[in-house]
UniProtKB/TrEMBL annotation:
Entry's family note: Belongs to the 'GDSL' lipolytic enzyme family.
Protein name: GDSL esterase/lipase family
An annotated GO cellular component: extracellular region
Keywords for the protein's UniProt record, in alphabetical order: Hydrolase, Lipid degradation, Lipid metabolism, Secreted, Signal
Length: 341
């Protein structure tokens, strides 16, 4: 079940407290995830079908042009970076192999990525969570050659790792009737596969030097526009949300286990589900008006992204969702504020 409000507030205090004690200097941050935090990696994958490098994406971002972010403006990662007083880490694939920027933080997130390697298979190219961890391993070796092994290890131990992954394992895997996993596994079997795989992945990150890891739980996917259209009445899909709550609960237990098993590990589970659900159920409380459909008039039959010929809503700042999957800049601002209460 979702965490009570007081427990959520206490967890967010711990999250903020961790950030305040990272370092007197500007924190080094590494971001892993999917399209909710991508900043352009997929633009460098020639055959990827999971791209947002066309209008109207980026219309409210600095410069007003598409940057590979799957929203009209900033991602939640961008906004967290702003609050940390640092520049948003650059896309991994935008950097040269020996770039000094590697020392300040990198964003590995990739649209379509999942915990499982076969998630998002029909996008042809994307960086799965395993791919992203492999990429981090590569840059750590580069950092060692730049500053030496001891300094590289210290940098990695002190850095912060933001991880938001798992949505695509549902939206672009289990919930797709034409894919094997939705037919091969019951949900109980599928969620055990996700958790056991995630256990191995987070342990591997730890072995590579990650200590301060913040895992962002999944939001109420049953309420995103791409799922609502499956309901005859346009309501949230209750069963999907129940599955997501179960996933979040099991990840929380995994993180408790990892903190016990791994010396000096400081993993935090950021339960964003209640915050996102409140935004959807009570948009007026936050100065928003529309939460049951996207600002961009999308066609969910052909993917649900905002295409160049799509029509936009008249006031983008009043919508929770930008396209069939992703929040607007306005919604991301509100969610970032909730992470720093």
């Amino acid at each position: 079940m979702a965490m009570p409000v007081l427990a959520f507030a206490a967890l967010m205090f711990t999250f903020t407290d961790m950030i305040s004690t990272v370092s007197a200097a500007l924190p080094v941050t590494y971001v892993f995830g999917d399209s909710l935090t991508e900043v352009g990696n997929n633009n460098y994958l020639q055959y990827s079908l999971a791209k947002s490098n066309y209008p109207w994406y980026g219309i409210d971002y600095s410069g007003g042009k598409a940057t590979g972010r799957f929203t009209n403006g900033r991602t939640i990662g961008d906004l967290i970076s702003e609050k940390l007083g640092i520049a948003s880490p650059p896309a991994y694939l935008s950097l040269s192999g020996n770039d000094d920027a590697l020392l300040k933080g990198v964003n590995f997130a990739s649209g379509g990525a999942g915990i499982l390697n076969d998630t998002g298979l029909y996008f042809i190219q994307r960086l799965s969570f395993d791919d992203q961890i492999n990429s981090f391993k590569k840059i750590k070796e580069t950092i060692k050659t730049k500053i030496g092994e001891d300094a590289a290890n210290k940098l990695c131990y002190q850095a912060m790792y933001f991880i938001g992954i798992g949505s695509n394992d549902y939206v672009n895997n289990f919930l797709q009737p034409f894919l094997a996993d939705g037919q091969q596994y019951t949900h109980d079997e599928f969620i055990e596969l996700l958790i056991s795989t995630l256990d191995q992945q987070l342990t591997r990150l730890y072995q590579l030097g990650a200590r301060k890891m913040i895992f962002h739980g999944l939001g109420p996917l049953g309420c995103i526009p791409s799922q609502r259209v499956k309901s005859k009445t346009g309501q949230c899909l209750k069963r999907v949300n129940e599955w997501i709550l179960e996933f979040n609960s099991k990840v929380q237990k995994l993180i408790v286990s990892l903190n016990h098993r791994l010396p000096n590990a400081k993993l935090i589970f950021a339960d964003t589900y209640p915050a996102v659900l409140d935004l959807i159920e009570n948009p007026n409380t936050y100065g928003l008006k529309v939460s049951n459909r996207s600002c961009c008039n999308v066609d969910t039959n052909i993917g649900g992204l905002c295409l160049p010929n799509s029509k936009l809503c008249s006031n983008r700042s009043e919508y929770v969702f930008w396209d069939a999957f992703h929040p607007t800049d306005a919604a991301n601002v509100l969610l970032a504020e909730k992470l720093f209460i």
